Amino acid sequence: MKARILVVDDTRIWRNSMKRALQHKYEVDTAASYQEALTLLRSAPPYQVVVTDIGLSGDETNTDGIDLLLDVKALSPTTMTIAVSGRPATVNKESFAQKYQAITYLEREILSKERETFVAWVDQGVMLSRQAKDEQNPAGPQS
Q1: How many domains does the chain have?
Q2: Which residues make Cβ contacts (< 8 Å) with residue 100, sequence separation at least 6?
Q3: For the segment 4-53, what is each residue's pLDDT rounded down to a tens digit?
Q4: What is the C-alpha to C-alpha distance for residues 15 and 119, in angstroms, rounded to an integer?
Q5: Alpha-carbon gap, residue 128 to 78, rounded angstroms
Q6: Residue 74 has what DSSP assignment?
Q7: What is the extent of the structural domain holding 123?
Q8: Angstrom distances, CA of residue 13 to CA of 66, 111, 112, 116, 121
Q9: Of the given ranges (29-33, 56-60, 111-115), which has the lowest mean pLDDT?
Q10: How far is CA 59 from the centre of its chain?
């Protein structure tokens, strides 16, 4: 069974670009907003990885993507998250990732310049998610 990935970005071109990069290996769902992502997270079996834009609107004060990082962990502790941003990083990426429990913080340009790096981070997230699930349910099968 293919691992399930949720890609969340308010910009269709980036959402579709991430989906195309992953769909050959994974079952990929997409959402354009925080609310749409929450609906998918609550109505579907757990995702192994959620990739989200941290600024889910043109408004630079919008925190929906950050809120989503925290909500994912509350809803599904074994789901790994990856933060993506098209804005220049104003914080230390490692500190940000640790604070919001993301496995990494990627700048959006990596999607066009280093697609293999993006896919490798998702691969790592799937592996970590499966390990976390195995630790949570030692006798259960992997999904």
Answers
A1: 1
A2: 66, 69, 70, 81, 83
A3: 999 999 989 999 999 999 999 999 999 999 999 999 999 878 999 999 98
A4: 14
A5: 8
A6: H
A7: 4-136
A8: 21, 11, 11, 18, 20
A9: 56-60
A10: 21
Q: What pTM was computed for the model?
A: 0.88
Indicate whether 39 belongs to any domain.
yes
Domain of 74: which CATH number? 3.40.50.2300
Q: Which residue has the tokens 């390990």?
A: 131
27 located within any domain: yes
Please provide residue 66's backbone torsions phi and psi, each rounded to the nearest 5 degrees: -65, -45
141 within a domain of the structure (yes/no)? no
pLDDT at 61 over 90: no
Domain presence at residue 10 = yes
Q: Which amino acid is at 112?
A: S
Res 142 pLDDT > 70: no
Question: Distance between CA atoms of 102 and 79, rounded to whole angstroms?
Answer: 10
